[in-house]
Every structure is written in structure tokens, then in C-alpha cells.
Design goal:
Layout lengths: L1 H19 L16 H8 L6 E4 L1 H4 L12 E7 L6 E5 L4 E4 L3 E5 L10 E5 H5 E2 L3 H4 L5 H8 L9 H8 L5 E7 L2 E9 L2 E6 L2 E7 L2
Antiparallel strand pairs: 1-2, 1-7, 2-3, 3-4, 5-6, 8-9, 9-10, 10-11
Helix pairs in contact: 6-7
Length: 206
């Protein structure tokens, strides 16, 4: 009898343990460490002609409010001197945008060859990999909700991340015999509740 109970406990805890690891909220975005702005601009040149997809959960905070969530664009030109980037929408419209560079000082005692981490809101506002190809098994209904920045009960964390973005207000996780419970807070009025990786409750009085 004890062996049966032990086996049942292991069957319960194995999936819980798999979900217990911290969720990667940056899984869809890619930045890089560079030591100078010149090196940063040099890397930008490699993006000319690349496809990107808008992350409106972030882009709306910048001068990109006209873009739809997951809208496809092509980087058509980059002015290395000014930093201005031009995108072409699928309808042929040209959008001009100048990313903001943010330089973070590392610990002065850090002997890392990169003294700064130069971040750019370009990496936050756009996905550099096609979200649709990364999740080919998702239904068209799910994709329509994500494009409209909507969520519904039963959606996975990955779906909600593409729809609402990273919970910048707060994140809380607890584990019990029923599984892993997470609360993603976007504000005091907007919260998503997950159990074992699936959305179980939505608080949205924003």
C-alpha cells in the first residue's frame, strides 16, 4: 500500500516539478551585449531586409501605437548615423522609427570585457522570429485572440505572453499538492491566474 501511495505522489509531483522552474518571459525577444555604441550600430546593419513582428504590448508605449499585435513588417533600411529605422508594412506603408538606446553601467569591479549592456527598445517592440512558425499547432481562433490582445480561460502561458506581454507589475508563484499556481499582475486591476500552466481566472477591470 505504501508503494502505491509513493508511486501516486511521484506521478503528481513530476509534472509539477517540470512547471516549477521560472517561466522565461523573454523567450520571444533577443538582445545582445556590446561594449560600444559603434558595435551596436554595426550589428544593426545585419537586420536590413529582416522580417519582424510587432509586440504591441510594448510598442504601444512608444511611437508605434498604429501597429497591430503580431503585425508583420520588413526592416527596409537603417541609418547608422542617426539610428533611424524604416519598416515596410504588408500594405506597402513605410513606418519610420528611432529606437531609444539605454546604457546600463555594470559593477565597476566586474572584469567582464563588456563594461555596458546597451539595450534598445527595438528588441522589446518586435519579435525577430515568426511567432506563427514557433507555434504551428495553435488554432486560428487562438491566433485571432492574440492579435486582438485578448485572453480566455484555458490558454497557455505562452499564448497569454504573446497577447498581453510580460506582467510588469508583479509575479507570484506557489506550489502545493494540486500543482503550480501563478499570478501575473499587469496592474492592480489586471491579473491572470494560472494552474499548471493554464489560465484559470482573469481579473480585468482596467
Amino acid at each position: 500500500m505504501k508503494k502505491i501511495i509513493l508511486i501516486l505522489c511521484l506521478l503528481i509531483l513530476i509534472p509539477v516539478t517540470a512547471l516549477a522552474d521560472d517561466f522565461d518571459f523573454n523567450q520571444n525577444h533577443h538582445g545582445f551585449n556590446v561594449s560600444t555604441e559603434e558595435e551596436y550600430k554595426a550589428r544593426l546593419t545585419n537586420l536590413t531586409g529582416k522580417d519582424v513582428w510587432a509586440d504591441q504590448s510594448v510598442a504601444k508605449a512608444y511611437d508605434l501605437k498604429s501597429l497591430k499585435n503580431l503585425e508583420h513588417l520588413v526592416i527596409t533600411s537603417i541609418d547608422i548615423t542617426s539610428g533611424v529605422i524604416k519598416f515596410t508594412r504588408d500594405n506597402g506603408e513605410i513606418i519610420t522609427y528611432q529606437p531609444i538606446l539605454i546604457k546600463y553601467d555594470r559593477n565597476k569591479e566586474d572584469t567582464n570585457k563588456y563594461p555596458y549592456y546597451i539595450s534598445c527598445d527595438l528588441w522589446s517592440c518586435f519579435f525577430l522570429k515568426n511567432p506563427y512558425e514557433l507555434h504551428p499547432d495553435w488554432s486560428s481562433e487562438v491566433w485571432e485572440k492574440i492579435k486582438d490582445q485578448k485572453v480566455s480561460i484555458g490558454m497557455s502561458r505562452e499564448m497569454c505572453l504573446l497577447s498581453w506581454g510580460t506582467p510588469h507589475h508583479d509575479y507570484h508563484k506557489t506550489i502545493d499538492i494540486a500543482g503550480v499556481h501563478e499570478v501575473w499582475s499587469y496592474s492592480e486591476a489586471q491579473q491572470l491566474f494560472f494552474t499548471n500552466g493554464l489560465l484559470t481566472r482573469i481579473d480585468d477591470s482596467y
